[in-house]
Fold this sequence. Notes:
Elements: H1 2-10, H2 21-24, H3 48-59, H4 61-70, H5 75-105, H6 111-143, H7 153-156
Helix pairs in contact: 3-4, 3-5, 3-6, 4-5, 5-6
Amino acid sequence: xxxxxxxxTAQRRPWQDEIYEDEQYYDAEPVEEEPLRExxxxxxxxxxxxxxxxxxxxxxxxxxLFLFFAEKKSRAMRHFAIQSLALTVCHMALALxxxxxxxxxxxxxxxxxxxNMWLWIAYIAAAIxxxxxxVRMMFFAWRGARFVLPVIGHKLDxxx
Length: 160
């Protein structure tokens, strides 16, 4: 086969000396790439009134509670209401746990003060993370894209 290739290349004209793709990569297998699933947003709403309502539900937990019980038709409104309520419940549960720990160990001299200070720092950091998640949820709601909370979001989709 090499002899046949040499004779073919010897008989070619100068303008035929370029290497064709099939000759250069004749033994390479094609590589199939998986599309990135995380970069594709699932659009769940396009109506501006629904988008505004979803954004308000993501921003205001009392409004999200109202929408959770009142809205039965719009999947987008229920989705953002459930996500917002879950974020609020997580925030309140974390605050309750930190208050209980502070009440139990807060009376210890010196150690109680240090623990109280560290618990406040932890609460402020968690509140900042919750605020960032809520703002991100608002942006997704305004675009009409689906937003899922990082840890508990997939479990909440069963309620929808």
